[in-house]
Design a protein that fits this description.
- With about 240 residues, the chain is an alpha+beta fold.
- The protein has a single domain, classed as Oxidoreductase, molybdopterin-binding domain (Sulfite Oxidase, Chain A, domain 2), CATH 3.90.420.
- About 20% of the residues lie in helices and about 20% in strands.
- It is built from 5 helices and 9 strands, in the order H-H-E-H-E-E-H-E-E-H-E-E-E-E.
- Strands 2, 3, 6, 7 and 8 form a 5-stranded antiparallel beta sheet that branches. Strands 1-9-4-5 form a 4-stranded mixed beta sheet.
- The two termini are about 25 Å apart.
Amino acid sequence: MPGNKPPFDVDRRKILRSGLSLGALTLLTGCDISDNDTVQAMFARVSRWNNFVQGALFSETHLAPEYPEAMAVKNFRFNAWYHYNQAPVISAADYRLELAGLIDNKRPWRVADLYALPQKSQITRHVCVEGWSMIGKWTGTPLSVFLQRVGADLTAKYVGFVCADGYYESIDMASALHPQTIMAYQLSDQILPVEYGFPFKIRIPTKLGFKNPKYVTAIYVTNRDPGGFWVDRGYNWFSGI
């Protein structure tokens, strides 16, 4: 499946210096990261090991902590590789969610169609790879409900996402079917504002924030490793529990 080309130049060394996602890579804090082949090979080996360990520890019955509503932040932090005024503005009237890959019913979905699906709320902590976290109230449709509704092959390995801001991401099927993984249409009981991903973002509280794509315009199911925006630049793919 194609992914959109990022609209901004992202420097690999800057990304790596900013702090990698999990495990032994954190031991490199303060080191001068280079593009030396030996160093990159070491990154790849450690990342594969992280993926294996995290995948082995993952369980659909293991839930991220949920919090009382009083702890939910109203002014949630904006986070992207660009300034908030560069966030894509999507017209609800023109929007269509495209479907591809191992899905039976590939008809496009309008915003109104998505809003008509069953919804649930969760108050969970967003954990950023940069070292900050924030609790928010998110409301939307469990991704498992949507995948079942469109006839996705639930035995496939991966679910991938393409986004209007040039971002792209993927998760394993077990994470997609996790009960806390939702297509979030609201933040703090309000329609998702532009800067947080209107018309919806994928909210996965069992994974680091960069695994939670915004401005989703396409979902596909595949058995081929789709990679991801930051993963293709050195981050660990699984990045969860």
